[in-house]
Amino acid sequence: MSVIYEPRGRAKEYSPYALNLYLGCTHGCKYCYAPHALQRTADNYFVKPAPRKDVLKYLEKDLSQNQYDKQILLSFIGDVYCETADDGRTTSEALRLLNAFHASVAVLSKGGSRMLRDMDVFRTFGDRIAVGATLTFYDECKSREWEPGAALPTDRLEILKILHDSGIKTFVSLEPVVEPEESLKLIEQTLLDNSVDHYKIGKLNNYRGLDKGVDWQEFLIQALKLLLPSKKQVYIKESLRAAASDVPLYENETDPQRYIVRA
User: What pLDDT digit, counting tens, does each position of 5-17 carry?
Assistant: First the structure.
């Protein structure tokens, strides 16, 4: 069984390859697509997950038999820095394996300070790793409402600053954008902190019709107004480009492969 795979559809915009170590999560995000994708109820998915059976054995087999010249994302299903049944040991061991085989890795999480337990492992990758956070709300009360088990915004922002100041490449995923004003505040804060190298910006997709009442064109205009003077790397996801099709973009803002980490 291969555990490193090529994502399809919208997921492929984020990474050429992906690896899911756990098939559950404690963050409890309202908008999470994973329970539906795995055909599980929320009660069966939003629990402390155990690692997938023999996932490290299969990972080592994949890495020894194949050459992965582009980044492998951790992860699309589950969060490798949620509260897990093994206290994150599988995440740490997987990272060590990936580094031993000279793979390039992107880590995306809402786990906040839990990510710091692998700081020493992150450093061993050098330029072959980017560590990111999903940012959704600036307001802590709204964050608790929508993502009750995830790290609070202040924690995620602080960890991005720590990572960036330690010389580790950082990125943020601004998706879903539930309230555009909140996402714009987050962009402003990360620019003030100078804590992020690369921004991936999307929208809210098909969640109870909330996306239908948003002026996505105005949101994208305001986001670019903040980001372009900073000279930061920016990728605008296809869903947002389609919803704000009148906003002109540069080629580098629409190429999902341009800023991925490579071995």
Answer: 999 888 889 899 9
